[in-house]
Design a protein that fits this description.
Elements: H1 2-38, H2 49-79, H3 89-95, H4 97-101, H5 114-145, H6 147-160, H7 169-176, H8 179-204, H9 208-216, H10 221-259, H11 264-273, H12 277-305
Helix pairs in contact: 3-12, 5-6, 5-8, 5-10, 7-8, 8-10, 10-11, 10-12, 11-12
């Protein structure tokens, strides 16, 4: 009996062992299926672009707006008391309401809104600055490429660029005998120097590897200028243009005060002679806003054109 019982147990154990792996596999599958059912996959959340744009706009707008409101409040507080020599913002709004809300009115050849006056001044700036940009880039390329040109012209440029813009006005009036071309010349002579200097620096800083490639490819001077020089020096050129356009706007306002006409500069001088301080302050705001727009415009064009360049 003991022997038979031992044999029975020995015979029964292989069958049980054969069924055990199948049972374990079934249990594992059931457990895996159960886990999958309990944790279904969820689609990834898409980034909210509008929220990102709104945050960027708030960061760019809110701080200047808060500072502006604080400055206006302080200005109103300091200039509202007795003995104040400057008008507060509330008085400026009352005195210059028409200039603020309607910048493009026309009541005659001389009585026009500040918007028209700004456009007339911008027309002169466009002509003078455009000529300065073309001439400045060409001269800057020559000075940057030629060591002899740099040694001969750079000292002269450094001397002439220190002359104040209005100091050129009597010379321009004597040469052109007219206020409009004289004002354009003052803009030209003011804006050309930063364009020349920055262009020359950009040309001198072209990597030697680029010059070697141009020699290997046997590029002619025009191909080298278009394919190598301009892309490499573009960041420097636009830096000079950005400085030049700001100086042009400063020069035209000062020149128009002396030459007359219907520009924004002459409006400020005429308002001063008529003791219209509120109108002067409004005109100063126009000048500042337009100058900021011109700077941002040239900077934006430069950033777009110089994308991917080696020096950018």
């Amino acid at each position: 009996m003991p022997i038979t019982a031992l044999k029975g147990e020995a015979i029964a154990s292989p069958a049980a062992d054969a069924k055990a792996p199948a049972a374990k596999a079934s249990a594992a599958k059931a457990k895996t299926a159960e886990i999958v059912r309990l944790t279904p996959a969820r689609p990834a959340a898409r980034p909210n672009r509008f929220a990102g744009y709104a945050h960027s706009a708030a960061v760019a707008i809110v701080p200047p707006f808060v500072v502006l409101v604080a400055l206006l409040g302080l200005w109103e507080l300091l200039c509202s008391g007795p003995g104040a020599t400057l008008p507060p913002p509330s008085t400026i709004w009352q005195d210059s309401y028409d200039l603020i809300v309607n910048p493009f009115f026309v009541n005659g050849s001389q009585d026009i809104g500040l918007g028209w006056r700004v456009l007339i001044s911008l027309q002169r700036v466009a002509i003078g600055f455009g000529l300065a940009a073309v001439a400045g880039i060409m001269l800057g390329v020559v000075v940057g490429q030629s060591v002899w040109a740099m040694r001969g012209l750079d000292p002269i440029f450094q001397v002439l660029r220190t002359v104040p813009p209005l100091a050129w006005l009597p010379i321009a009036l004597a040469a052109f005998r007219d206020s409009n071309p004289s004002a354009i010349f003052v803009i030209f002579i003011t804006a050309i120097w930063p364009v020349i200097i920055n262009t020359a620096v950009g040309v001198r800083n072209i990597p030697q590897d680029y010059r070697n490639v141009a020699q290997v490819l046997r590029l002619n001077p025009l191909e080298f200028f278009v394919k190598i020089m301009l892309p490499s020096a573009a960041p420097y050129i636009f830096t000079g243009l950005r400085i030049g356009v700001g100086l042009s706007w400063l020069a035209i306002v000062a020149a128009e005060m002396l030459t007359g006409g219907v520009g924004i500069g002459f409006f400020i001088w005429d308002a001063w002679n008529s003791s219209r301080l509120s109108d002067i302050i409004v005109a100063l705001v126009y000048i500042g806003v337009v100058g900021f727009i011109l700077d941002r415009l040239v900077a934006g064009i430069g950033a777009f054109i110089t994308r991917g360049t080696a020096a950018a």
